[in-house]
Amino acid sequence: MNPKLDDLCINTIRMLAVDAIEKANSGHPGMPMGSAAMAYVLWDRFLKHNPADPSWPDRDRFVLSAGHGSMLLYALLHLTGYDLSLDEIKRFRQWDSRTPGHPEYGHTPGVEMTTGPLGQGFATGVGMAIAERSMAERFNRPGHAIVDHYTYGIVSDGDLMEGVASEAASIAGHLRLGKLIYLYDDNKISIEGSTDIAFTEDVATRFSAYRWHVVHVDGNDLGAVSAAIEAAKAKKDRPSLIVARTQIAFGSPGKAGNAEAHGAPLGKEEVRRTKEALGWPLEPAFHVPSEALARFRRSVEEGKERGTEWKARLDAYAAAHPGLAAEWSRATEGRLPEGWEDALPKFSTGDPALATREASGKVLNAVAGKVTDLLGGSADLAPSNNTFLKAYDSITGSDFSGRNIHFGVREHAMGAVLNGLAIHGGTIPYGGTFLVFADYMRPAIRLAAMMGLGVIYVFTHDSIGLGEDGPTHQPVEHLAALRAIPNLTVIRPADAAETVDAWRFALNHRAGPSAIILSRQKLPVLDRTKSAPATDAGKGGYILSDVPDGKPRIILIATGSEVEVALGAQAILAGKSIAARVVSLPSWEIFDLQPKEYRESVLPPAVSARLAVEAGVSQGWEKYSGSAGDVVSIERFGASAPGKVLMEKFGFTPENVAARAIALLGR
Questions:
Q1: What is the pLDDT of residue 313?
Q2: Whether residue 493 sits in one domain with residue 614
C-alpha cells in the first residue's frame, strides 16, 4: 500500500468524472466521486480481468448497477488500459461516442451489461453468478478448474428500493451464490433528497434475512473495504453485501452530501473549489498524473499474465478431457451442436389435438439431450408452462448439476436473471410464465432486446381462450405490447407443427430474444396434406390454404388458435363461391425480414380485401390488413367463462369471421 499514491489514483477517477460531466454539461458526478475509493480498491486489488481481452471467459464480472454513475466505469476502463481513449472520455454523452450516458453492452469495451434502469444490474448479476456456478459444475474436473471467477457489482440506494432487486436477492440467497459480491454505495441520497423521505428500512437486516453475508464499512477506508472483500470471498455459501457508507460528491465543498450533485454537473465555480480542496491542478482539464496512470496500467500486464496462465490450464484440460474441451469451445462460442435439429419431434394430422404449450414442452424435452446449453425454468408455473426438463434435476443451493431453475413467483427477477445467463455465455436461457405476466418482465425483456441477447421466453395461456380464470389472467393487449419492442421476435404458432418451427428459430437466433406465445387450449394439428408444410412457418408468414387458381377475392390472416377459425371461415366462404386465401402469420418480425417479392406473393397488393383474425387488440394489424381491410379483434378485457364460450361470445368463430369477410367485400 502507498497511501499517497492511492489518494492520487482515487482523485484521478473523481476528477475525470467531474471534468467529463462538466464538459458535457450533463451527467451524474456525485456517485462517481463518492464511490471512487471503494471502486479503486476492487479494481486495483481484486478484480481479475484482462483489458487486452475484455471477453476472456474466466474474467471476473463487474456490473455497475448504478448506471447513472457511468463516468466511474469509463474512468476505470480508460485508466486500466481498455480500448477507451481519453478523447472518448472527453466526448461523454455525445453523438456516436463510446461513452454514452449510461453504460451500454456491446458498445464500450469492458462494459458487461447495459445498466441504468435501477435494480436491473443487481438482478442480472445474480444470473451471471448462477451461470458461473452452473458452468463450473458442468465443465470443471479435479485438477482442472477452467471456470473460477466472481461477479462483483456496485449497487445504490435506488437499486435496493426497486422490487426486482429484492426478488433477485431472495433467489441469490436461496441458491447460496457465494461468488456474488456487491458493494452498496450507501450515500443516503436520491434525486428528491435524503433517502429518509422514503427509505428508512434496515437494509442489512433485510439482506441477512435473505441469507446474505452482510458487513458495514466506511467506503473511504481502503483497508476496511479490502478486508470486507476478503471476508466476502471467504464466504463460500452466501452472497455478500458490503454496506459502504459513502458521501455523494465527496470532495466538493459546496455539494458533498447534497442531492444537487446526483444528476447535474457541479458547475464551473464548484469544480474550481473541488479541485482546490483535493489539491488538484485547475488546468488542464482531464489531467491524468503519470504516477497514477502507471499504477492503473499494471492491469494490462497482469491481465495478459492471467490470460496466458488460464490458456495453459485450458490446454492441460483439453489434453486430459478432449471431449469436454470441445464441448466447452462450442458452448462458449455460441454454436449449436451438429445435427441438433434431428432431435426435433414431428407432428402430423393423425396426432390428437394438442395445446401448443404441450407441444412446446415436447420440443424442449426432445432437444434438451442434444442442446446441452439449455438452462432455465419457470416462475412457479412449470407444470402449466411445460418448461421442466424431465431427464434432469433441479438446481439447488448445494447442487448445481441440474438444468432446471425454480424461479419462484418472481417474474421480474426471472427476466433479469435470464439476461445474466445469456451475457455470461455458455448457456441458452429460457423462462416461462403466463403471457399476462409478461408485464412484470417487460423492463428485462426490453434490455434483452437492447443488448441483443438470445433469451427465449415461453409465454403460455395466450388469450381469452384460457377460460374461467377471467380477465385478470386473459392477455388482450400483451401481443401488441411485445411486438412494440424493437429486436424482440414474437412467435405465435397455430399448432404443434408450427411450434416446432418456433423453437427451431428461437434456438438458432442468437442476436436477440424470442417470445414463443402458446395456447392453454388444445388445438388440432393442421392437415398439411391439404395445405403448405409447417416449415414455411419459419418465414414468419405463409399461405396456409389457397384457392385453386391462386387468385383470392379476400385474404384471411390469423395467428395461433385463430388460424383454425380462419380455415373454418374459408370453408364457409367457399360454399358461397367466395374465394378466400388463409395466411398463417405466426411472426410479424420474421415475415418482415423476408424479401419483398416473397411478402407480396403471400399478401398481394392487388388484393385489398384482407381480414385479420387475432384474439387480442387490433393495434398494429393495419400494417397487414391495409386501409381497406378489417380486423376481428377484442378491444376490451375478457370475462370469466369456459374458453369455448368466450371465443363464441367475442366473435372468434368461423361463422362470424365469414360474415365479417362478406361484409368487408360488400363495402
A1: 98
A2: no
Looking at the fold, whether 165 and 87 belong to one and the same domain comes out as yes
Q: Which of 112, 132, 162, 411 is catalytic?
A: 411
Within this chain, do residues 462 and 604 fall inside the same structural domain, yes or no?
A: no
pLDDT at site 580: 98
Q: Over the stretch 32-59, which tens digit does the pLDDT of each residue have?
A: 999 999 999 999 999 999 999 999 999 9
Whether pTM exceeds 0.90? yes
Tell me which residue range forms the domain holding 215: 3-302
CB 428 within 8 A of CB 454: yes
Reported confidence tier of residue 528, pLDDT bands at 50, 70, 90: confident
Q: Are residues 610 and 660 in the same domain?
A: yes
Helical segments of 235-297, H only: 268-277, 290-296
Q: How many CA atoms lie within 13 A of 96 on its CB side?
A: 0
Query: Do 413 and 284 sit in the same domain of this protein?
Result: no
Residues 503 and 601 in one domain: no
Here the CATH number for the domain that contains residue 234 is 3.40.50.970
Q: Percent of the chain at pLDDT above 70?
A: 100
Residue 655 annotated in active site: no
Among the residues of 150-237, which ranges form H helices? Answer: 157-161, 163-174, 203-209, 222-234
> Do strands 61-64 and 151-156 pair parallel, antiparallel, or not at all (unpaired)?
parallel
Q: 330-370: per-residue pLDDT in tens?
A: 999 999 999 999 999 999 988 999 999 999 999 999 999 99
CA angle 192, 195, 200 (to 5 degrees): 145
Q: Are residues 426 and 293 in the same domain?
A: no
In 3D space, the residue among 109, 108, 37 whose CA is nearest the CA of residue 72 turns out to be 37
